[in-house]
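Hi C.,

You asked whether I'd gotten around to modeling the 394-residue construct. I have! Everything is below, sequence then structure, no commentary in between.
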Amino acid sequence: MDQQKPLPPIAYFTIMSMVSPIALNILLPALPDVAMQLGITTAEVQLSLTLYLFALAVGQLICGPLADRFGRRPVLLFGIALHFGGCLLGAFASDLSALLCARVLQALGGCTGMVLARTIMLDRYSRDQAAGKIGYITLAIALSQAIAPTMGGHINLHFGWQYLFHFSLLLSTVSWLIVLFMIPETANQRSASLRIDNILRQYWQVLQAPHYLGYALSTTFIACAFYLFIGSAPYIVHQELGGSSADFGNWFLLVSLGFMFGSFNAARFSARLGTQRMIALGHSLSTLAAVIMLLATFSSGISYLTLFLPMALFTIGRGFSQPSGQSAGISCATGSPSTASGLMGFIQLLTGALIAQLTPLLLQLGSQWVMLSLLACPLLALIAYRSTLTGARG
């Protein structure tokens, strides 16, 4: 039986989880060139980010029930194939409609690797053990965020933005082959049907699970700060610091390395410290970082150091808290881990899409409002986390 087969090394799952983050981030530095070559406005090309996040949110919501009904492997194989189709369409896109369709297909298909890599860990391991494994997956996502913008800028410069889709095409092919030959089926039980009333009831049951919503909101508020930063920092660098997209990409490496550092240490220590301590430590570091950024901005003005160094500390905290928060939240819904994982991703990404649309309004009010909003995020995360402590176990 597939359920008895041992899982392959965690490295295979990290590749699977990197497909969508790389596709999302690799195109960002090339968006001005995309707009110029397709003859569209900045606002129109920005839809490629907003719709990607929105489709990623919807995809994660659908992915969970499908995986609980049909199993992990079939959903992974179909999803990555769908992502492959989006990459192919994007590589030959000649207008805005084709580009946006490609991004939606990439997001809908790529989300399966992100959701089900975490779910498979929870299928086979305890909550604290899974938190460590999820930490490595989060580390892979952080690595994707670190290398994708820089790599995308160079590929775009030397070959053109269409080759960014060719790169994602290659990665999705490797991931699909990994699932086909290496990943066993891990679903021990499957839901009876996909009737919409059953699916809605299942989501409602997940939301009603003790402490699930608290953990979900806690990780979402931390993620909101990251989406706010990546949506505003390129404009702050360009308009207030007079820098280029290359400057943003180079300094952004600090932020991604901070996330990698936090995620790596989360993977090493979460089993020993427990989920509750890791979440509390991570949120506290993120709050401290947001305070430092705000105070530094008001005292000495915006600079590369006051913008990116505190955000690197913020993402160290996020790397600590996110794997444990995800593991704890998903484990609250004992009967439907895929649905719980997909719903958590939906909440985070839908909020991220909303933040992407609100960020220009905050920038119009002034960059100090961006800093204040960044501080509000970890404070709200701490409040949501505190709501889970009654009767919770770490």
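If it helps when you're writing up: The chain has a mean pLDDT of 84.

Thanks,
B.
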